[in-house]
Amino acid sequence: MDNQEIKEIFEGFFQKYKKTEGDDNTYTAFWSERNPEGSAEIVMVRCPADTTFKFFINGKKVDEVKEWEGFFPALDKFSKKYNKVFDTESFFSGMQEMT
């Protein structure tokens, strides 16, 4: 799965499942996956100023980056560091199935 495909999947998922965060200007969508090793979650937060991505392992935030330019290097690092819990292909395929 290449970066463009991942972006399209996440954007489609976000448009379908985003929830407002109280002020009608900030929206959030997240996807998580569990396996016997633990859970991995990525949250996308979009407001007028920017888009933020938050990465979690077993409920603990391990990284936070801004915009798509920051997302893909962080995703690569996340998938390498937490490869027993997070599999990029499985994660985004599951997300794609929901859209």
List its salient traits.
99 residues; alpha+beta; five-stranded antiparallel β-sheet; 40% helix
What does this 3D model show about the protein?
With 99 residues, the chain is an alpha+beta fold. It is 40% helix and 34% strand. The protein contains three helices and five strands; from the N terminus they run αβββββαα. It has a five-stranded antiparallel β-sheet. A hairpin with a 6-residue loop joins strand 1 (19-20) and strand 2 (27-35). Helix 1 packs across helix 3. The longest helix is centred in the first third of the chain and has 15 residues, at 3-17. The radius of gyration is 13 Å and the shape is globular.
Which SSEs are present, and which pair or pack?
Layout: H1 3-17, E1 19-20, E2 27-35, E3 38-46, E4 51-57, E5 60-66, H2 67-81, H3 88-97
Antiparallel strand pairs: 1-2, 2-3, 3-4, 4-5
Helix pairs in contact: 1-3
Q: What is the succession of H and E elements?
A: HEEEEEHH
Estimate the helix proportion, in percent. 40-55%
Q: What's the end-to-end separation, in Å?
A: 17 Å
Which stretches of 5+ consecutive residues score pLDDT under 50? Answer: none
In short:
By secondary structure, the protein is an alpha+beta fold.
